[in-house]
Amino acid sequence: MYSGSILLVQQQADSASHLRERLEGKGYTVVEAPDALTAMNIANCSEIGLIVTELYVPVGKSRCLARLVGKTPSLDRTKILAYTVHGKKQDRAWARRIGADGYVITRSGEERFLSVVDHLLAERTKPRRVALRPRRAT
């Protein structure tokens, strides 16, 4: 249905329109989702090339959408770009840990954001392997 499209997941509509305009200006087809449930429904029913999501979009007990996508076998070849506005050292580490294919700080500039998107979409798709540490018993 949306073959090769980008799924943009953002809870704040004003921020979503800015990123959508950047991506559409570059020639990408963008599908938007305001929450994790809608995003998962779209991703499971469509051919999405890349999910662009805020790093911490909550999903029930799970800490974020990117982690849920990474654990979903039917989406193991769907690439994920996690971003934050104010990046912290632990954000980059968390993005790697949950299996995001890329991480970017959006305030680092439009060119950086778009170059990461271009790189991820040009890169050959391979199954994701999420290396999550087992929880310690207390």
Write the layout of secondary structure elements.
Layout: E1 5-9, H1 13-25, E2 30-33, H2 36-45, E3 48-54, H3 65-71, E4 79-84, H4 89-97, E5 102-105, H5 110-122
Parallel strand pairs: 1-2, 1-3, 3-4, 4-5
Structural commentary:
The chain is of the alpha/beta class and 138 residues long. The chain has one domain: Rossmann fold, CATH 3.40.50.2300. The chain has five helices and five strands, in the order E-H-E-H-E-H-E-H-E-H. A five-stranded parallel β-sheet has the order 2-1-3-4-5, sandwiched between helices. Helix 3 links the parallel strand 3 and strand 4. The chain starts with a strand and ends in a 16-residue tail after the last helix. About 4% of the residues have low confidence.
Give a short synopsis of this structure.
The chain has five helices and five strands; from the N terminus they run βαβαβαβαβα. It is an alpha/beta fold and 138 residues long. It has one domain (5-122): Rossmann fold, CATH 3.40.50.
Q: CATH H level: which superfamily?
A: Response regulator
Structural class: alpha/beta
The fold-level CATH name is: Rossmann fold
Into which percentage range does the β-strand content fall? 15-25%
User: Helix share of residues?
Assistant: 25-40%
Radius of gyration: 14 Å
Assembly type of the chains comes to: single chain
User: If strands are numbered along the chain, what order do they take across the biggest sheet?
Assistant: 2-1-3-4-5
Return the CATH class. Answer: Alpha Beta
Mean pLDDT: 79
Number of strands: 5
Order of helices and strands: EHEHEHEHEH
Q: Count of helical segments?
A: 5
Unreliable residue stretches:
131-135
- Give the name of the CATH architecture: 3-Layer(aba) Sandwich
Dominant shape = globular
Number of domains: 1
